[in-house]
Specification:
By secondary structure, this protein is mostly helical. The longest helix is centred in the first third of the chain and has 32 residues.
Length: about 400
């Protein structure tokens, strides 16, 4: 660690490697959010199918499910910033392929799914490396604040990415993909400039026991297991944001720019909450606060699901995002602080598998449910299910509910 003294938000932002980390991570988030708008709108525009829209999430998730253990080991065995850099380069090349196909008018739904799978593969390797790298950059005792700042920077990218992606798509379908390529290349350059306070460890070849060590570690720690599984099931059911293209076009009757605004709304709420958490860390009853945040997330999902007004939909999504960021900061800090450095890549991979399962399988689940029952009933049921899961998990994982402090 670079210091044993907790650093304030201002000092952290002056930390060169942490600032480079923020910019690199934000670049990846920005590009991925542009991709979410462009790919989602183009698939729905080409097919008009809620099921195909849900399939985008499934195609993104499958690489994570298949490669989770290899990705975690790669983050622990190889230099983490190099893993990040290679993933960003692979994403940039994929974006160039999509841009060319969209520009020439030859891009098909199958090609979009294949490209989405490649992006999912790169993300599967990138995310554990990113999570395991952050604790090696920031001063000890500052991880919760650094996580809040990192999440805030990512939320700024999440706000601007969808809006710019929607506007760019309205100008030309190839434009958002070109933007993605440039931003991912920039992120790869920034990643290469990061310097760690201690040398990267290069480990011996993996054994089967090493590959599955992250699963064993999570299973033996009830608080970590409860945290990760809560996110899995709560967001799996509350994945109403996967239905935003349907809401934008058919319910709220807006276009690609309106879709970008809706996608950005959760990030606006998250950014406002991040500003609070960066100054005022959660110092007590953190377990209970996480459960309360998940319940608010579910309630906001129900309000969004029932709304026919753009202003109310945006407000509900902003509240949803604010609640989610509280859960994210607590979850990330708890998992990282409870995990030794030599295990962070593999545990981070398990965590990412659960996160991806909640987000991308949640998108698939929402698409299938919407195809069967309609978008609004699917979103309402998802929000109610999220609340029920939070209440149930409070009973099943009392040690998590009773966690008092993080650092």
């Amino acid at each position: 660690m670079s210091s044993m003294i907790p650093a304030g938000s201002g000092a952290l932002l002056k930390h060169r490697s942490f600032l480079l980390f923020l910019l690199s991570r934000s670049s990846s988030r920005f590009a991925s959010q542009v991709a979410a708008v462009a790919i989602g709108w183009q698939v729905y525009d080409l097919t008009g199918s809620a099921f195909d829209l849900g399939m985008v999430g499934l195609v993104q998730f499958l690489p994570t499910a298949l490669l989770v253990f290899a990705a975690g080991h790669a983050a622990d065995r190889y230099e983490r910033k190099r893993v990040m850099q290679l993933c960003q380069l692979a994403q940039a090349l994929t974006a160039i392929f999509l841009a060319w196909g969209a520009y020439t008018g030859t891009l098909t739904v199958l090609q979009i799914f294949i490209a989405t799978g490649v992006l999912g593969t790169a993300t599967a390797f990138e995310s554990p490396a990113v999570a395991a790298l952050l604790p090696l950059i920031v001063p000890q005792g500052s991880l919760q604040r650094a996580t809040a700042l990192s999440s805030g920077a990512a939320q700024i990218a999440t706000i601007t990415g969808p809006a710019i992606g929607g506007l760019a798509y309205a100008v030309a379908p190839s434009m958002p993909y070109g933007i993605m390529a440039v931003i991912w290349l920039l992120g790869a350059i920034l990643t290469g400039w990061i310097r760690l306070s201690q040398p990267a460890l290069v480990r011996d070849a993996a054994t089967p026991a090493d590959l599955f060590a992250g699963v064993r570690f999570v299973r033996k720690n009830p608080a970590i297991l409860g945290t990760i599984s809560l996110d899995l099931f709560a967001v799996l059911l509350g994945g109403a944001t996967a239905l935003l293209p349907i809401y934008a076009r058919d319910i709220l009757q807006t276009g690609p720019l309106g879709l970008g605004i809706l996608r950005a709304a959760p990030a606006v709420g998250a950014l406002l909450m991040t500003a609070v958490l960066a100054r005022h860390t959660i110092d007590s009853r953190v377990g209970l606060r996480m459960f309360q945040a998940v319940i608010v997330f579910g309630a906001a999902t129900v309000v969004f699901a029932l709304s026919h007004w753009m202003w109310l939909s945006v407000l509900a999504l902003a509240i949803l995002g604010a609640a989610d960021i509280v859960s994210v900061v607590i979850r990330f800090s708890l998992v990282q602080l409870a995990t030794p450095d030599e295990m962070r890549g593999r545990v981070g991979a398990v965590n990412f598998l659960f996160i991806n399962a909640s987000n991308q399988l949640g998108q698939f689940e929402s698409g299938v449910t919407a195809a069967l029952f309609g978008a609004m009933p699917a979103a309402v049921l998802g929000g109610l299910g999220t609340i029920a899961i939070a209440l149930l998990w409070m009973k099943l994982f009392p040690t998590l509910r009773d966690v008092e402090r993080l650092e």
